[in-house]
């Protein structure tokens, strides 16, 4: 039977425990929302001061060269690559996940249109995918006005049959934002290829959360966030991966000057640069990009196998404690128990999920809420301890036992 003492022993034996001090976390807060906005690396404050005070303040425009601002999207992409099974020269950190998905999807549709799959007009994804991914696919399809349609699938079991001879692209998010369900990327990509489709993966809830092997899975394109598990800061630029084997054929519609072969030639004709640079569009938010590096620095002090081992131990413990200590309450686990199918979050439904989450937040346990009725708890092994898990469950138990939540709690704009 678990106890707080046992959790403290797990912390004492945890090879990642020392990384918690790399993050600035407020006293009295148990932060279980790193799947939505990662915590601040301690080093980010000094780095922001350097970028704003010195690089911008003193060196002004010279910093594009002198401080390496111009190369940052590619340099950071190369540093991020090993976390997702990509190679140098295949990733850029740029724009937003929504925009990068637009570019990747447009590129994939164009590759199909120019090849033997030219007749294919269907994009397959899940109805439960993160809405922006669906909206982007809808928007692109409608705007192209070439008969492209979106096929929304209601369960994982229906996916294989949905990838038929009409399917151009299978577009999936590797780990579901609501349930924490993890797809089998290699098997689904193989299935897509066997049926003539390309596979585009969104790694928003995978990058920095668990080991990803894009090359091992033979994936075609991928995008993802840096402000979640990679701790890049609010609104930090996202990433896009185009494997070397597709780069020469990859084109995308937002052909801005940062994707040009010679941006400072200032010529009136667009000529895409060779390599991953063609996935870029225009000038990047330098201050925000610089913060991404502070998040990546921490990952250099460990490896994704260790992160994954601790993530599974934390999520296993949380599930076990909630189910054994919060008995008699209408809580239902929606996250897979199977390790192979689980991301790095645990979601429980409760009929008053929103109110209970507000009560948790008021008591310093920060998770979040997603419709319908889902309380979402993200576990970030770099800065979450086993004792944190114990304490969070005890507070949850106390709130539920005493019904200490307001079922009329007003909804904020961000839940
Ligand atoms: C968080 C998330 C996004 C966010 O996209 P933005 O363009 O950064 O707002 C997109 N897709 C998925 C699957 C996500 O989880």
Automatic annotation (TrEMBL):
Catalyzes the cleavage of L-kynurenine (L-Kyn) and L-3-hydroxykynurenine (L-3OHKyn) into anthranilic acid (AA) and 3-hydroxyanthranilic acid (3-OHAA), respectively. Homodimer. This is Kynureninase. Pathway: Cofactor biosynthesis; NAD(+) biosynthesis; quinolinate from L-kynurenine: step 2/3; Amino-acid degradation; L-kynurenine degradation; L-alanine and anthranilate from L-kynurenine: step 1/1. InterPro entries: Kynureninase (IPR010111), PyrdxlP-dep_Trfase (IPR015424), PyrdxlP-dep_Trfase_major (IPR015421), PyrdxlP-dep_Trfase_small (IPR015422). GO terms for biological process: anthranilate metabolic process; L-kynurenine catabolic process; L-tryptophan catabolic process to kynurenine; NAD+ biosynthetic process; quinolinate biosynthetic process. Its EC number is 3.7.1.3. One of its GO terms (cellular component) is cytoplasm. It comes from Massilia horti. The gene is kynU. Its cofactor is pyridoxal 5'-phosphate. Keywords: Hydrolase, Pyridine nucleotide biosynthesis, Pyridoxal phosphate. It comes from the Bacteria.
């Amino acid at each position: 039977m678990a106890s707080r003492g046992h959790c403290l022993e797990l912390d004492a034996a945890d090879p990642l425990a020392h990384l918690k001090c790399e993050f600035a976390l407020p006293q009295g807060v148990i932060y279980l929302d790193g799947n939505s906005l990662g915590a601040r690396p301690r080093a980010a404050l000094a780095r922001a001061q350097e970028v704003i005070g010195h690089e911008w303040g003193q060196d002004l425009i010279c910093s594009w060269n002198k401080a390496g601002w111009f190369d940052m999207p590619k340099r950071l992409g190369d540093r991020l690559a090993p976390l997702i099974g990509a190679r140098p020269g295949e990733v850029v950190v740029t724009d937003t996940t929504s925009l990068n998905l637009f570019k990747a999807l447009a590129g994939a549709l164009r590759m199909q249109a120019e090849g033997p799959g030219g007749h294919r007009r269907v994009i397959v994804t899940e109805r439960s995918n993160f809405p922006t991914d669906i909206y982007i696919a809808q928007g692109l399809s409608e705007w192209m006005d070439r008969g492209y349609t979106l096929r929304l699938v209601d369960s994982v079991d229906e996916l294989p049959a949905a990838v038929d001879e009409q399917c151009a692209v299978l577009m999936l998010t590797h780990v579901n934002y609501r349930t924490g369900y993890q797809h089998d990327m290699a098997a689904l990509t193989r299935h897509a290829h066997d049926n003539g489709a390309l596979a585009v993966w969104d790694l928003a809830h995978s990058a920095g959360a668990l080991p990803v092997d894009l090359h091992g899975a033979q994936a075609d394109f991928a995008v993802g966030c840096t402000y979640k598990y990679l701790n890049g800061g609010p609104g930090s630029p996202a990433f896009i991966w185009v494997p070397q084997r597709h780069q020469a054929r990859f084109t995308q519609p937002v052909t801005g000057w940062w994707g040009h072969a010679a941006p400072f030639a200032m010529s009136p004709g667009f000529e895409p640069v060779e390599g991953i640079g063609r996935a870029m569009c225009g000038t990047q938010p330098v201050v925000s990009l610089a913060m991404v590096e502070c998040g990546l620095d921490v990952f250099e002090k460990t490896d994704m196998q260790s992160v994954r081992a601790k993530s599974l131990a934390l999520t296993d413990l949380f599930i076990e404690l909630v189910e054994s200590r919060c008995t008699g309450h209408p809580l239902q686990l929606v996250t897979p128990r199977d390790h192979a199918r689980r991301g790095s979050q645990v979601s429980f439904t409760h009929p008053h999920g929103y109110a209970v989450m507000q009560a948790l937040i008021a008591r310093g346990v920060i998770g979040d809420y997603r419709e319908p009725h889902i309380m979402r708890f993200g576990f970030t092994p770099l800065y979450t301890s086993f004792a944190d898990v114990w304490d969070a469950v005890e507070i949850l138990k106390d709130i539920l036992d005493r019904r200490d939540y307001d079922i009329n709690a007003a909804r904020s704009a961000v839940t």
